[in-house]
Amino acid sequence: MKFLFIFLSLVFTDNRCSESKINQEAISFEYSTQSRRNYKNVKINKKSIAVTDKRDMPPLTKTCSEEHWNNLLKAIKPVDVENIPNLKAPSQKRLFDGAAIARLKIIYNGTTYETEPFDHGNPPKDIEALVKEILSVSENIE
Which domain of life is it from (predicted)? Predict the structure, then answer.
């Protein structure tokens, strides 16, 4: 009986996961930071990673590996994308030049979901893992 219960639980759980799959071709991420002296813009989609380290300079672009893309998809699963514009920054150092101003944009099916500004290095907890993964992917580009 336990086996049957576990088996049915797995079947129903698997069906829910397949229904909630996202269109990977229709999603992209953009993370930007800026301060008086520093600037960084990271754009990632399933095909490419583009990093710009200076204003008015062309981005450095490379192919997004399947491993990086899958890690990003894992990081976004727990995020309520529609709610990210309502997230509150946990600190206010950017208001007095104590941290760079950061923003996260998630573009899905032509709709852009953007956070309010927050301190670079201290994102809201709801998007912390996703921001860390985006930064990790962007640091591996050379």
Answer: Bacteria
Domain covering 23-139 in this structure, CATH number: 3.30.1560
Hey, what are 77's tokens? Answer: 């699963």
Long-range Cβ contacts of 24-27 (<8 Å, 24+ apart) = 24/69, 24/73, 26/108, 26/109, 26/110, 27/76, 27/106, 27/107, 27/108
At 6 the pLDDT is 44
pLDDT band at 48; cut points 50, 70, 90: very high
Please state, as a whole number, how many other Cβ atoms lie within 10 Å of the Cβ of residue 89: 19
**Cα–Cα distance measured from residue 95 to residue 50, given in angstroms and rounded to the nearest whole number:** 28
